[in-house]
Fold:
Amino acid sequence: MGVIENVNNVMEDGECSITQGEGEVLFLDFWATWCPPCQAPMAHNHKMLEENKEKWGGKVRIIGLSIDNDAATVKNHINTKGWTAVEHYHVRNGKCTADKEFGVQGVPHTALVDKNGKIVFMGHPASRPNLIQDFDDLLAGKAITGAGTTAGGGDDDEEFKENVQGDAAEAAVADFLAKSDTHL
Structure:
């Protein structure tokens, strides 16, 4: 399993790395405080964690990866909104390359990593209308299907292409397929 290096921990004010623990499902949410379409998904992330923390027993981690200009802005926004159940990191620090590694061309942008470290979804959070079911399925070792998934979680390459905007669709699919056969 790989590591996301050189991120700033927003709540603890320091540089660190993000690693996946054994049997954990990760949901990586690239977002920004200034992005109106990012606000409802982040509020939903917090609510999902709060409502399912006992059921998931710490095995689902939702990780906010902010592309804001500075970590202090993110920390203030999170505290104001009360979105503290989500783990928050700042990735626009000149060192972290997670946005490039996950094909982030705009926000919101998410990636779902199964408990074995395999990327099984990448795209807009609205493409996954029932994330709670996705988390439950992945924790149970089941595959997910639908928009943004590939052979690791379904065979929906054409559907993934339709959800990628602009001329970068073919490149994004190739990049995603390469990463779906590797680990985080």
